[in-house]
Amino acid sequence: MGAIEVRDLRKEFKAYSSRSGLKGAFRDLLTRNYKVIPAVNDISFSVKQGEMVGYIGENGAGKSTTIKMLTGILEPTSGSVTVNNMNPHRERERFVQTIGVVFGQRSQLWWDIAVQESFRLLKKVYKVSDEDYNNHMELVIKTLDIGPLLDKPVRKLSLGQRMRCELAAALIHNPPLLFLDEPTIGLDVLVKLKIREFLKEINEKYNTTILLTTHDLTDIEALCERVIMLDEGQIIYDGALKSLKEKWGEGKEIQFQFLEPAELKTLEEATSGLQVKWEVDEKKQVFTAFTEDNEETISQVIAKTVMAFRIKDVNIDETSTEEIIRNIYEKGMV
Asked: What is the dihedral of CA 309, 313, 316, 320, to 10 degrees?
């Protein structure tokens, strides 16, 4: 059996509505109007031990609800969940000894005490022996470069420092399965790189299974070979990231930088009649044309753009994973 086995998993919530007027308020005291909303709608998937899987979707797609059921925080309305050969909700005490969880916007460290004191408390909670703690945490502390932070109260840490300590805290008992929900949210590039390298290392060294939920697709590309895409509570894709790119990433991105101020409207007018969509990065002043992978079309886009503006630099890339996934959500799996 795999690390995670999910079959026909469903979670429904009741959404209550209030009646209007004073009479309606009195009626609400006796009976409430509500409708049942499925947040997760009969999904099935499995994750093998040692896999690193990206679990992605737009806000409200059901990602966090799924994670909460997989970690035993929520009980499913129907269906079955088996994680590490246990029912997360019914075998709660034994189950939590086998998982690590990092939520990007929630802390498991105590705010006013030193980081190492939090670690010692968690060591006792998870009943980790001194020998196991020292052998394992020496590597974790060194790799995440948090040695100088151990004597500092959590409240004095920057966001990047705290997230590295949160990750270390989740691994004190060296769990075989790690759930990461937006672990790099708000972090700078260098901290993100350090965390990614660390996750690769523990996956290789301990065969740790990792389920990663994030909006930062560079995290997914750096760590995961497989992605599960969720939309409105249902799985719309489960497979290799490489296959997703090959099947839906048929277009090209042409990035332009100009020697003079440019406007999106002017570029759209200059390339009207061609199969092209323009976007602009205002901060970097980079204009990107998304077009089909056709030599004639690409040549025409570049030619008409050159006629409209003087070019400082031009670069042609494959369509990014972010653009592919955005197109799937906008247009569907066609």
From this structure: -100
